[in-house]
Design goal:
By secondary structure, this protein is mainly alpha-helical. It has 6 helices and no strands. It has helices at residues 10-36, 41-110, 115-125, 130-137, 141-155, 160-171. Helix 4 packs across helix 5 (141-155). The longest helix has 70 residues, at 41-110.
């Protein structure tokens, strides 16, 4: 699991680590100097306490840097895996769509649809209206309606919804029925 929270860039963490290390070194030199000049116990205690706080901060920064490194590695792996999955899914989608297209075309051939009827049937399956189809094909709406009726007659279907259902039904699993509530 990737830990969340404030993420510091590796350079920022390194800069903080170096700053803490330098301050810690100076604090130790100050403590050694204060011992040599016989500073008060209270002054030495404060310096030692501050040095301890800086040391704790440095340890935390080193720990966070390691955790961030692990998190980055996990995120990179997850990203790579997701990218591969998308590529696989896209490739599968292309194959599936190609197969569906071939299946529909075979059925159109079985129904002995003309090339114009095949084109209209495909546009009907895509959900276009007769008006939209007539605009695309640059024919009259009446011609499209007549060709649609010819398609339904050749396929022995009642209409557009039966045409769509004919193909959709094959893609639904047998247990994909709607149960009354």
């Amino acid at each position: 699991m990737v830990q969340t929270g404030v993420l510091l860039r590796p350079r920022e963490i390194l800069l903080l680590q170096l700053t803490c290390a330098v301050v810690l070194v100076f604090s130790i030199f100050d403590i050694v100097h204060d011992v040599k000049i016989d500073s008060s116990f209270f002054h030495l205690g404060i310096d030692a306490f501050l040095a301890l706080l800086i040391l704790i901060a440095l340890v935390i920064l080193i720990y966070r840097a390691k955790v961030n490194g692990r998190n980055i590695a996990k995120l990179q792996t997850a990203y790579s895996d997701a990218k591969k999955q998308i590529e696989i899914t896209s490739a599968e989608k292309v194959l599936i769509l190609k197969g569906i297209g071939e299946y529909i075309d075979r059925q159109f051939n079985i129904w002995k649809l003309s090339s114009a009827e095949k084109e209209i049937a495909m546009l009907l399956l895509k959900g276009l209206s007769h008006i939209e189809i007539s605009e695309i094909r640059q024919t009259s709406e009446r011609t499209v309606r007549q060709q649609s009726l010819n398609i339904y007659a050749k396929a022995q279907l009642k209409g557009r919804s039966d045409l769509a259902a004919f193909f959709l039904e094959d893609f639904l699993s047998p247990d994909a029925t709607i149960k009354p509530s």
